[in-house]
Write a structure and sequence with these properties.
The chain has 155 residues and is an alpha+beta fold. It has one domain: Gyrase A, domain 2 (2-Layer Sandwich), CATH 3.30.1360. It is built from three helices and five strands. It has a five-stranded mixed sheet with strand order 3-4-2-1-5, with helices on one face. Bound molecules: zinc ion. Zinc ion (ZN) binds next to α1. The site of zinc ion has 5 residues, from α1. Its EC number is 4.4.1.21.
Length: 155
């Protein structure tokens, strides 16, 4: 199998909540695409309920783009402790941190309706939990987000 960057990160040595630059790819034309981890929960110490991380996905899809240009994608981590983000260019970590904090403040303040929640717009529109999504945003902000450097597993 191809090597996957995130499998080289030592998940026991990170301190959530954080943003981490996971890597930068160059397209054949030379453009940069940066991938970030936006981690909300400490790895292996709990997980966001599926309904809540689904709502976070819907809300951050819009709110992160309000605070950071050229976002390609924001998707839940399968482990349900945070989100992945792909963005065109190489925004610095402090800028991504500031944008993520601003987006989380928007999530914390968000009132119904949740955007994109209908049978037409979503693949599982009944599976949402706005209250828990807001609680996770509030908790992460209260704990204080930081820039997490990459610490590789020593093999
Ligand atoms: Zn959905």
């Amino acid at each position: 199998m191809a090597n996957v960057e995130s499998f080289d990160l030592d998940h026991t040595k990170v301190s959530a909540p954080y943003v981490r630059l996971a890597g930068v790819k160059r397209t054949p034309r030379g453009d940069a695409i940066s991938k970030y981890d936006l981690r909300l929960l400490q790895p292996n110490a709990g997980a966001i309920d599926p309904a809540a991380i689904h709502t976070l996905e819907h809300l951050l899809a819009g709110y992160l783009r309000d605070h950071l240009t050229d976002v390609v994608d924001v998707s839940p981590m399968g482990c349900r402790t945070g989100m992945y983000m792909a963005v065109i260019g190489e925004p610095n970590e402090e800028g991504v941190l500031t944008a993520f904090e601003a987006a989380l403040r928007d999530v914390e303040a968000h009132e119904r309706p949740i955007p994109g929640v209908s049978e037409l717009e979503c693949g599982n529109y009944r599976d949402h939990d706005l209250d828990q999504a807001r609680t996770h945003a509030r908790d992460a902000l209260a704990q204080g987000l930081k820039v997490q450097p990459t610490i590789l597993i020593e093999r």
